[in-house]
Design brief:
Length: 845
C-alpha cells in the first residue's frame, strides 16, 4: 500500500511559508511513497541493465589483504562458488546500482551512467566506501538489504516478544545487526494477568534472542550481532548488569541506559527510584553508587556492560523526530541510536587519502575532503531509495526520516602522516576541526538535496522545522569501519593503530611461508626518511610497536603509538572530540591494560559523562577474572567385615573410572611461556615418582577461543598421561611432546631453539623442560629441580599445589589477539566496539 507523504519544492513564484532571514519560498506537494517493487520497476525501465565496466575508468590499487578479503566476502560468485568478478567490477556493480536511484527524480540512463562513473572513481580511490552490506549486495539482485544496523521494538507481551525474535532472524539472515531495548518488559516476578502467572523478566527473554541468533547465519556467511539495553531504573537492572559474567548470552553486547537522574544521584552519592515499566509505579530505590560499582566491576571482568547516557541521546540530534521516539536502543556497536523499525545507511571517508604536501609542509586537503563529503551524502541518500529493506515497517520508517550516517576511517594514518601523536592536544583539536567541517559540509549537501528532491517527509515534525529543510534527518555517524578499513588499506575508524606490524603464517601441503604485515603508512614514513629496513620490520613485528625498537628515531616513537600505549583518559578525550560535531554517536573502544583496576573503568565512565560523550565501551586487555581450576578428587571405598578395602572408586572432573586414580595431593610447578597467542601459564603436576600426571593451561581472556583451546589442550594431555599403558609414564609423556612439538600457527615468537610456533608447541616445550634428567636439572639450577633453558620459559611458582590451582592475572607483555572463528588465525582484536580479524576481515560489524 502506498503511503502518502508531504515534501517541499522550491518555488519562487508562490509563497506559502516565509522564515526570518531567508527569502526561499516553499509549496507543499503530494507524492506517493512507492514500495520497493514499484521503485525497482521504475529503475529497471529508465536506467536499464548495468553496462560493462567502461574502459576509461581507473584501476584500483589493492593491498594483498584487501584482495584476500574481497575474494572471500565481497566479489560475486557463480553457482560453484567461484569468483566471477574483479574488484573493479564489484565497485562498478555497486556504483551503477546506487546511481540508478536517481531515475526517481528524473535522471535518464545517460545521467545515471555518468553519476555511476563519479561514484566509481570515489570508491576505487578508497577515499570513501559504504558499509559492507552495500558492497556485498548492491547490484547482485539477491534480495539482501544494504544497511548494517537496525533497531527492533520489544513489546511487553508474549506476541510482541516473539514477533521481535522473528524480525531479528529475518534481519540477521539478510546481513544486518540488531539492537533491542528491553526496558518495556515487566520485571521478574511481576503478575501476568492473561496467564495468571508471573513474568520471567528481560534477561530470561534475552537468552531466547541469543539462542535464535546462534542458529541464523547472515547471508550464509556469519552469525548476527545484537545489542541489548536496559534502563538503569528497571527493577531487574542488577541481573542485567551481571548477565554475561557466567559466559551466557554470547551473541549480545549489552549496555545500561543511564538516566540524568541516575547520574545526578551518583554525583550526590544518593539514591534513585526503580520504576516498573508496565505500571509506571515506583517499586523501590537503589543507591546509585552501588549500581555504578556493579557496572564497573562487570565491565572490568568482561567488557560488558557499556553505558549509554540515554537522556543526553534523546535531547540530541540523534533523536531528530521526537514524535517517533524516544530512542530506546542502538545498533550492536553503540554508535547509531535508532527508533524502533529504524535503520541507517552508513559510509566512511578514509582520511589517510586527504593529506597533501604544501609550501608549509603536510596538511589536510580541505578542498578534496569537501568534494568527497558532498558526493558521499548524495550516495548514501541514493542508497535509501533502492535498498530492499527486510521488513515493510523498516521501509516506511526509514523513508519518512531518511537517516544517513557518514563517518570516517584512517584517522590514525592521517596523524602518522602529519607527524601528530594520537594522545596530544593537537590531535584532539584537529579531530574536532575535521568533524565540524564534515558536519557543516554534510548538512549543506543535504540541504542542497532537499532543494532538488524535497526534505525528509517528517521534516515539519522534526527538530529542524524552524531552519533550512534537510533531505536527511541525521547526516553523520562514526561507525566501525571493520572490514572496509582492510579494503581501504587504512586504520580503523577513529581508533589508534592496534599493531604496527604482525606476522602471519601460511602453512599447508603446498605452501609454507611467513608473512609480515606492516602498517603501510609506517613503511611509507620509514622509507621516505631513510630509516626503514627488513631487520627493523622483523623487530617491530615481534611486539607490534616501536616503543623499544632501536633504529626508529625518537621523534617517530612519540608519533607511532599503538592503542595499548595510550592512556584511557586520552582515549576518552579523543572520543569526545569527534562526538561534539557528530549527529549520532561515535564507535570507539576505550582500551585498558590488563593490570587496570576497577577504579580505572569507573574513571573512564565518569570522564565520558563529563566530556559529553553519548556512551562508552571499555575493554580491559585479557579481561574477566582468572578462574580457579578445581582439580580435587572424591574417593569412595568399600571394605569387608575386617575393614580391608575390597573396592575403591575415584571421581574426578572429566575422568572415567578406568583412568589412573588421582591422589588427593600432588606436587607440581607453574611455568610461564610466551606464545603467539599471549603469555601462557602451564601447570604440570607430577606423581610421587616425578612423572607428569596432569597439565593445566591458562592463556587469554576467559570465554574466548584461545582460552577454550588452551583448556582443551590441557585436558587432552592430562587424559593421555592418565590412561593406563604398558609403556612407562615418561614414555607416554615423551610421545605427547613429540605430537605437539613443532605445530605451526599464525605467528611465532622467539628465535632458534627458543622459537615457539603455537600454543601447542609451547606446551610441548614446557613438558620437555619438565622432564630433563636430574643431573642436567641440578647443573642448570631450574626451579623445583627442573631446567628452564628456553629464554621464553620461566618457572613462576612451585611446590604443593594441593587440590586447587589458582593463577594470578597475566601481566601485559603485548596486545592479545584471539583466534578468529572463521580463518583460525590469531589476529582477532577488539576495537571500535567489536571484533575484527586482520587476516580474513571477519567482523561482527
Amino acid at each position: 500500500m502506498a503511503v502518502s507523504a508531504t515534501i517541499y519544492e522550491i518555488k519562487k513564484e508562490e509563497k506559502e511559508k516565509e522564515r526570518e532571514g531567508d527569502d526561499i519560498e516553499y509549496r507543499k506537494v503530494k507524492q506517493e511513497m512507492k514500495d520497493y517493487g514499484e521503485v525497482m520497476k521504475l529503475v529497471s525501465a529508465k536506467a536499464g541493465d548495468r553496462p560493462e565496466l567502461p574502459d576509461d575508468l581507473p584501476v584500483g590499487q589493492w593491498s594483498e589483504q584487501a584482495l584476500k578479503v574481497l575474494r572471500e566476502r565481497y566479489l560475486d560468485k557463480d553457482a560453484q562458488g567461484e569468483v566471477k568478478e574483479t574488484p573493479e567490477e564489484m565497485v562498478w556493480r555497486v556504483a551503477f546500482a546506487i546511481a540508478s536511484a536517481e531515475v526517481v527524480w528524473g535522471a535518464d540512463r545517460k545521467a545515471v551512467i555518468e553519476l555511476a562513473k563519479s561514484y566509481y572513481k570515489l570508491m576505487v580511490s578508497l577515499k570513501f566506501l559504504p558499509n559492507s552490506p552495500t558492497l556485498m549486495n548492491a547490484g547482485k539482485g539477491n534480495g539482501l538489504q544494504y544497511s548494517a544496523c537496525f533497531v527492533l521494538p520489544v513489546e511487553d507481551s508474549l506476541v510482541g516478544i516473539f514477533d521481535a525474535i522473528k524480525w531479528q532472524a529475518i534481519i540477521h539472515q539478510s546481513g544486518g545487526g540488531t539492537g533491542f531495548g528491553f526496558s518495556r518488559l515487566r520485571p521478574q516476578g511481576a503478575f501476568v494477568k492473561t496467564s495468571r502467572g508471573v513474568a520471567s523478566g528481560p534477561v530470561s527473554f534475552m537468552k531466547i534472542f541469543d539462542a535464535a541468533t546462534q542458529q541464523v547465519k547472515q547471508g550464509g556467511t556469519r552469525r548476527g550481532a545484537n545489542m541489548g539495553m536496559l534502563r538503569v531504573d528497571h527493577p531487574d537492572i542488577k541481573e542485567f548488569i551481571t548477565c554475561k559474567l557466567e559466559g551466557g548470552i554470547t551473541n549480545f553486547n549489552i549496555s545500561v541506559l543511564a538516566t540524568d537522574d541516575f547520574m545526578k544521584a551518583l554525583e550526590e552519592d544518593g539514591e534513585y527510584e526503580l520504576v516498573a515499566p508496565h505500571t509506571k509505579e515506583v517499586v523501590g530505590k537503589e543507591r546509585a553508587r552501588e549500581i555504578f560499582d556493579l557496572i564497573c566491576d562487570s565491565a572490568w571482568r568482561s567488557g560488558d556492560p557499556g553505558m549509554v547516557f540515554i537522556d543526553r541521546v534523546n535531547a540530541s540530534k540523534a533523536n531528530p523526530v521526537p514524535s517517533l521516539g524516544p530512542i530506546e536502543s542502538t545498533n550492536p556497536c553503540g554508535e547509531q541510536p535508532l527508533y524502533g523499525f529504524d535503520a541507517c545507511n552508513l559510509g566512511s571517508i578514509f582520511l589517510r587519502y586527504f593529506v597533501k604536501d604544501g609550501k608549509e609542509g603536510r596538511g589536510v586537503d580541505w578542498d578534496g575532503l569537501k568534494e568527497a563529503v558532498w558526493q558521499s551524502v548524495r550516495f548514501l541518500d541514493d542508497v535509501i531509495e533502492v535498498n530492499p529493506y527486510p521488513l515493510p515497517q523498516i521501509w516506511e520508517t526509514v523513508r519518512k526520516i531518511r537517516r544517513i550516517g557518514l563517518g570516517i576511517g584512517g584517522w590514525a594514518d592521517m596523524l602518522f602522516l602529519l607527524g601528530i601523536p594520537y594522545d596530544s592536544k593537537e590531535a584532539f583539536d584537529l579531530a574536532e576541526k575535521i568533524m565540524r567541517f564534515i558536519s557543516d559540509e554534510g548538512h549543506k549537501a543535504s540541504e542542497a538535496l532537499a532543494e532538488d528532491r524535497g526534505p525528509f517527509p517528517l521534516w515539519s515534525e522534526s527538530i529542524y522545522k524552524e531552519g533550512r529543510p534537510l533531505r536527511n534527518s541525521t547526516v553523520t555517524t562514526i561507525a566501525p569501519t571493520g572490514t572496509i578499513s582492510i579494503i581501504a588499506n587504512s586504520s580503523s575508524g577513529v581508533e589508534p593503530i592496534f599493531a604496527l606490524a604482525y606476522r602471519h603464517t601460511v602453512k599447508d601441503e603446498h605452501i609454507n611461508r611467513e608473512l609480515v604485515f606492516v602498517n603501510p603508512v609506517l613503511r611509507e614514513i620509514g622509507e621516505k626518511e631513510g630509516w626503514w629496513s627488513k631487520e627493523l620490520e622483523e623487530k617491530i613485528a615481534e611486539t607490534g610497536n616501536v616503543h623499544d625498537v632501536k633504529g626508529v628515531p625518537d621523534k617517530w616513537r612519540k608519533v607511532l603509538v599503538t592503542s595499548h600505549e595510550i592512556k584511557p583518559a586520552d582515549h576518552v578525550m579523543m572520543q569526545a572530540a569527534w562526538q561534539r560535531y557528530t549527529d549520532n554517536a561515535v564507535s570507539k573502544t576505550i582500551n585498558l591494560p590488563n593490570e587496570a583496576k576497577v577504579d580505572d573503568v569507573a574513571q573512564a565512565y565518569l570522564q565520558a559523562w563529563s566530556e559529553g560523550c553519548m556512551g562508552i565501551t571499555v575493554y580491559r586487555d585479557g579481561s574477566k577474572d582468572w578462574q580457579v581450576l578445581n582439580v580435587g578428587s572424591k574417593t569412595d571405598k568399600k571394605t569387608d567385615d575386617k575393614g580391608m578395602v575390597i573396592e575403591e572408586k575415584s571421581e574426578t572432573r572429566s575422568e572415567v573410572a578406568e583412568l589412573r586414580v588421582r591422589p588427593k595431593k600432588l606436587v607440581g610447578s607453574t611455568y610461564k611461556i610466551k606464545t603467539p597467542v599471549g603469555t601462557a601459564f602451564v601447570v604440570v603436576n607430577s606423581d610421587d615418582l616425578g612423572n607428569p600426571f596432569e597439565v593445566f593451561v591458562n592463556v587469554g581472556k576467559a570465554g574466548t577461543h584461545v582460552t577454550a583451546d588452551a583448556e582443551a589442550i590441557g585436558r587432552l594431555v592430562s587424559l593421555s598421561l592418565r590412561v593406563p599403558s604398558v609403556l612407562p609414564a615418561r614414555s607416554v609423556a615423551e610421545a605427547v611432546v613429540e605430537q605437539l612439538a613443532g605445530i605451526g600457527g599464525a605467528e611465532s615468537v622467539g628465535f632458534g631453539n627458543g622459537k615457539v610456533r603455537s600454543l601447542a608447541d609451547g606446551v610441548a616445550k614446557v613438558l620437555r623442560e619438565h622432564m630433563q634428567p636430574e643431573v642436567e636439572q641440578e647443573v642448570k639450577g631450574g626451579s623445583n629441580g627442573f631446567a628452564s633453558k628456553s629464554p621464553l620459559l620461566d618457572s613462576v611458582s612451585s611446590g604443593d599445589l594441593g587440590e586447587v590451582v589458582q593463577q594470578e592475572a597475566l601481566p601485559l607483555t603485548k596486545e592479545r589477539r584471539d583466534l578468529c572463528p572463521e580463518c583460525g588465525q590469531a589476529t582477532l582484536v577488539i576495537e571500535e566496539g567489536c571484533s575484527k580479524c586482520y587476516s580474513c576481515g571477519a567482523s561482527k560489524c
